Amino acid sequence: MMLIVLIAIIGAATAQQPPRTSVPHREQFRVIYEWRTIDFQWESPTDRETYFNTSRYIPQNVLISGINFYGDNIYLSLPRMLDGVPATLAYIPAHQNDTTAPKLNPFPSWSDNEIGNCDALQFVQNIEIDRNGIMWILDNGRVGTLTQNPITKCPPSIVLIDLKSGNNKMERIPLSLDTVNPSTTYLNDLVVDNRDGDYAYITDNSAVDPGIIVFRLSDKKSWKLRDKKSMSSTPEAALFRINGTTVNLPVNIDGIALGPQFLTEDDSVDRTVYYCPLSSFHLYAINASVLRNESLAMIGEGALRPYVVDLGTKTSQTDGMKMDSTGVLFFGLIGSSTIAEWNSTVDFRSGQRTIARDPNYIQWVDRFTFDDRGNIYVIINRLYNFIKNQVSTEEVNYRILRSYTGSKSYVFSEDLKPSTPPQNAAPTKTIAASMLVFAFAHLIA
To answer: Per the record, GO CC terms (predicted)?
Structure first.
């Protein structure tokens, strides 16, 4: 059993923040699982040997990208960027004695991860589990995205699994071709809004057509909204330097987070969607009500510009990020090997706070999740080595860190109700006033 590694918490804030009520005791981030390469719980030793000998399993090509928690399991996504990834979605027990390189169980099953079978999962970058126990899976349908010849196996789709039922039956919903291009769309990350028929807001970091895809479950309809200025990579942020390794990654809109509900000036309920390109130092925000406006998608480029708010800059680039139920955003700062947080009731430019920094153990912060015990988890995956084909099987490449924060996921944020019936008002042009309303409500809670 490996020695638990403690990662120092840096408590100094970049700026003085107002006191929060009932601040929980914070723990240091600890390594709870780590791997040099990923292996699986095979149905038999013969199966493993067959997959290995036919290059359907190439250990150094299996990367952990996304993470989510439900029940007693941690679910992990394994995008098929390279050949030799036998399963693209898997799980491990959340609590087990052996913390060194636990083997992954394909989810829902081996057959449900079969390449070329459009009833099965093809390429899962990320997942989310909503407040009702529904797993939302982003399946790009295209494999080998880091090879010279990516192959579109199946349509880009949303796949739903009701985890509460226990039967793990998949419902696949291909996205409209008016919304996605099977050859260029890259469904990267998502948040789920369990209001008004259930919505998902999805980042598409397509190299040629980046944007936010909105999917409404009630009628299975989707549309895409674009804003080049806030959703495209910037040249000054495309170069990443991590522990002596340099990689050029001009990647568009990537991370996304969803804030708590708030009441607007016209007494309707809204939420704030936060997002950023991977290759950018800026964090942007827009009201969910704006994204839900299908007519803006029909207008095209420029329609979102009046509603996008540039909240300010970070010291480095961010991949994944996650918000808790009270409006605290957790995010990584890749270039400085840092995990940071921001209480969204204060100004982003002065309210960012470093909570962990370690160049040896925090190498490329990818995705976050919360469990039901007040813990936050983060995936560290050294993506920069993976992209450059420099993964060493003699070194630890993937880690899951955990810290107690007393937090729970944004999906469990408080439900608000307007005091008067909502009016059919146009979306507000900025989130400034609504953020102030939320800030006041948070402080007096």
So the answer is: extracellular region
Dist. CA 406–CA 258, nearest whole Å: 19
H or E stretch at 391: none
Is residue 275 assigned to a domain? yes
Q: In what order do the strands lie in the sheet with 89-93?
A: 66-70, 73-77, 89-93, 105-106
The whole model's pTM is what? 0.89
* Residues in CB range of 42: below 8 A, 6 or more apart: 48, 51
What does the DSSP assignment read for 305-326?
GGG-EEEEE-SS----EEEBTT
Q: Which of 6, 27, 138, 144 is nearest to 84 (CA)?
A: 144
Task: Single out the residue of 194, 38, 178, 187 nearest to residue 131, CA to CA.
Answer: 194
CATH number (domain holding residue 406): 2.120.10.30
Residue 299: how many other CB atoms lie within 10 Å = 11
Query: In a 10 Å sphere around its CB, with 0-12 CB exposed, 13-18 middle and 19+ buried, how is residue 246 labelled?
Result: exposed
Count: domains in the chain: 1
In this structure, are residues 242 and 366 in contact, taking their beta carbons and an 8 Å threshold? no
- Convert the pLDDT of each residue in 33-70 to its tens digit: 999 999 999 999 999 999 999 999 999 999 999 999 99
- d(C-alpha 403, C-alpha 8), whole Å: 11
Q: Tell me: the pLDDT tens digits for 189-237? A: 999 999 999 999 999 999 999 999 999 999 999 999 999 999 999 999 9
Opening angle at CA 164, ends 158 and 374, nearest 5: 95
- Mean predicted confidence (pLDDT) in 148-174: 96
Backbone angles phi, psi at 440, to 5 degrees: -65, -45
Q: Where does residue 337 fall: left (phi above 0), alpha (psi -120 to 50 degrees), or beta otherwise?
A: left
Identify whether 1 is part of a domain: no
In sequence order, what are the residues at sequence separation of 6 or more whose Cβ sits closer than 8 angstroms to the Cβ of residue 318?
254, 255, 276, 278, 283, 331, 332, 333, 334, 365
Calpha distance 254→364 (Å, rounded): 14
How far apart CA 115 and CA 3 sit, in angstroms, is 38
Judge whether 122 lies within some domain: yes
Structure tokens at 275: 């997002």
The number of beta carbons lying within 10 Å of the beta carbon of residue 431 is 26
> What domain range is 378 assigned to?
6-444
